[in-house]
Amino acid sequence: MEAVLRPILVIGGSIALTVVVVWLIDRALQRIDHRHPETPLWGLLRRCRIPLQALLAAALLLGSYDQTRIPVVVHHAAGIGQALTLVLIAATAWLLVRAAAAIVESSYTRYAASARDAARVRRVRTQVTLIQRVVTAAVIVVAAASMLLTFPQMRAVGTSVLASAGLVGIVAGIAAQSTLGNLFAGLQIAFGDMVRIGDTVVVDGQWGTVEEITLTFLSVRTWDERRITMPVSYFTSKPFENWSRGGAQMTGAVFFHLDHSAPVEKMRQHLHELLQESPEWDGRAWSLVVTDTTPSTIVVRALVTARDSDALWTVRCQVRERMIDWLRAEHAYALPRIATAPAPALRDGPEGGRQH
Description:
Blueprint lengths: L1 H34 L5 H5 L3 H16 L6 H5 L1 H38 L3 H32 L2 H12 L1 H11 L1 H16 L7 E4 L2 E8 L3 E6 L4 E5 L2 H4 L3 E2 L7 E9 L5 H14 L3 E13 L4 E9 L2 H22 L16 E2 L5 E2 L1
């Protein structure tokens, strides 16, 4: 009877104790979260329930599995202990990653709720995202190394590998040069405030918004919903346009190629009227001047301002469309025309021949 009850008590007791402890911790976090709704940390920490259960169960079973006195367990005690140790290490790493993610997300949420500068919020978001990825990568690497070192054979191999560490380091450095370059470029982007998640950029002639920044690549979502993915080292080695740097306000131009008889002063007045009717115009500045002339046309430039790049695009399109409609309806003579003339008549030359 004891041979049956002992395994049930050991295994069942470990599982029951794990469930009860995790349930109590979850209830405590839930109550704290209800009392302090301004701090999202406690609610986010509740996501750690599953890795915490795995950690406690593995720890309890690792300390008590040999008390079951089951013949199979006794004969394979080393293998079972090894397996439980691996589970314990993996669960610990899982718990650390979840806890770090909860702390980082809570910090960013509280900062974003109190900050009024959208540019600083995007900067902090970029930094905390990359910090979270670095912490996750470090925890995974340490956990994997710890799991490998639990095998006696791996420790012996490690001793022999250290003898040739110099050569291996050189080869690894050459092979990982590009990867390490992207890694340091990602950290430089995060803390150098060069580009942030949510910034509007122009890369290789493509206009879009930075959607994701990792330790190795950066993703830009273009205006037509395409995704451009490129290594982060691109942004530290090549020039690019960042329309979100120095504030979101922007100035844009609309060009018109018109006939020399175009009513510039009336166009200036009509542009002001159009801008006053446009909610996208921020009212900071506007102008309309003739910037160039050719034998057949003049170039009229209209400058407008807007609160951000999206509003600027909209107001430029509105000015272009409504100004052309107004010119076509009220001053059609101002639209560019192709001047043609009849060819000169042929006349007879001195020798009686026909010349041009």
